[in-house]
Specification:
The complex is a heterodimer of chains A (279) and B (164). With 279 residues, chain A is α+β, with helices and mostly antiparallel strands. Among the domains of chain A are: 77 residues; 87 residues, Thrombin, subunit H. Chain A is built from three helices and twelve strands. In chain A, the strands form two sheets. In chain A, strands 1-2-5-4-3-12 form a six-stranded antiparallel barrel. In chain A, helix 2 runs antiparallel to helix 3. The longest helix of chain A is centred in the first third of the chain and has 37 residues. The termini of chain A are far apart. The chains are: A alpha+beta (279), B mainly alpha (164). At the A-B interface, helix 1, helix 2, strand 1 and strand 5 of A face helix 1, helix 2, helix 3, helix 4 and helix 5 of B.
Chain lengths: 279, 164
Amino acid sequence: MRVGRYGILLAVLLVSLLLLTVQTRGGGTGRAGELVTIAVTPVQSLLVRIHRGALNLWANYVDWKSVRRDNATLHEENEHLRVQAMQAGETREENARLRRLLVLRDRLPLATVAGEVIGREAGGWVRSLTVNRGRGDGIAQQTPVIVPDGLVGRVVQVHRAAAVIQLLNDPASTVGAVVQRTRTAGLVEGDAGGTVRFKFMARDGASVAPGDLVVTSGLGTLFPKGLPVGRVIKIEDKGSALFHFAILAPAVDFSRVEEVLLVTGQTTQDVATLFPSEG
Amino acid sequence: MLRLLVLLVIVGGGVLQSTVVAVAGVGGITPDIPLILTVLIALRHGPESGCLAGFVAGLLQDATGGGLVGVQALTKGLAGFGMGLLVGRFWVSNPLVQVPGLVLLSIAEGLGRFLLLQMFHYPATFGDLMLHVILPQALYNGLIGTLCILAEASFELVGRRTWR
């Protein structure tokens, strides 16, 4: 039996609305969403590796062209050395990143799981990272995610071998925070433009100033106290408004995050001193 | 065979979107490759294929991106169907119509997505989204669409010369 074009449209509408209804009633994305992720995760990992490999290949090619005019012996030697140096440089950078992650991991009075970023969603509607750690590694919904510079976000979807992390600058992200110097409490929110804002009561925040570090408040049990969130770069004073906003420069450059720590344990200790405080 | 190929293209586009394309953003904006592929498929194979391709592409993006699963499946399915319906009614085979059409469709898809998300209390304001996400992404899509059309025309030209 041939299904008409409007039959297909109707089926697509019904399935989409059914999926949305199931989620809004607290049913999660269910097995269908999980199956899609299970199928896609290995391909994502593979593509990321191919992409990184292609970038390395391109860099090697450009270098090779620049020394081509040299004589053959020097050229060969030079090429080998450059390739080796590039590989060594890449490895050194990766080592440095992993070493910083390891130092933080050892210092933290918390259980953590290290993960590698295998996917990114940066279109603006949703800002997220996908990592290669999931339910099988003990990761749960709302798990805080950090790097040596500070807080990255929280886990919002967990699959068997992957997890989706909502970044701090996602429009739907909110995190309880305080200004470290003045202890002014407020909320850190993302917005559609990709900036991160700190919203605080006007009467409490008179002395908040550019350069102040904002850290997680530790109120509630989700985020440990003292994780660096960002530095104040501008105060938006709305006159007599109840709330003021401070624009933050996030502590973490989300576009450069390649490895993360997923915080699986809890602590009441202030962890601010375990993070670098330059700036 | 053709349907399998279309499915592979769409799944491949979805995976590309979350890996390679995500790091190729300009000012935080990335092109919507699955939407561009949906439009190209709808232009060549009509509303049924466009609708199914859009649905699969959107579902994949929803599942891997961390948003509400079903939102993009619905809007991209509608976009594919709508673009497929236009084939034969307007000059959609003309590149001068295809590129602005892709930009307008991207904006329409963004508006549809925003309206749908409003029902689920999406926190961003319309002005912010339009300024920072929908319009820049639509223009980026138009640019990528132009490159696709130019590439296709070049292949056709090379093909004709080879056959002569």
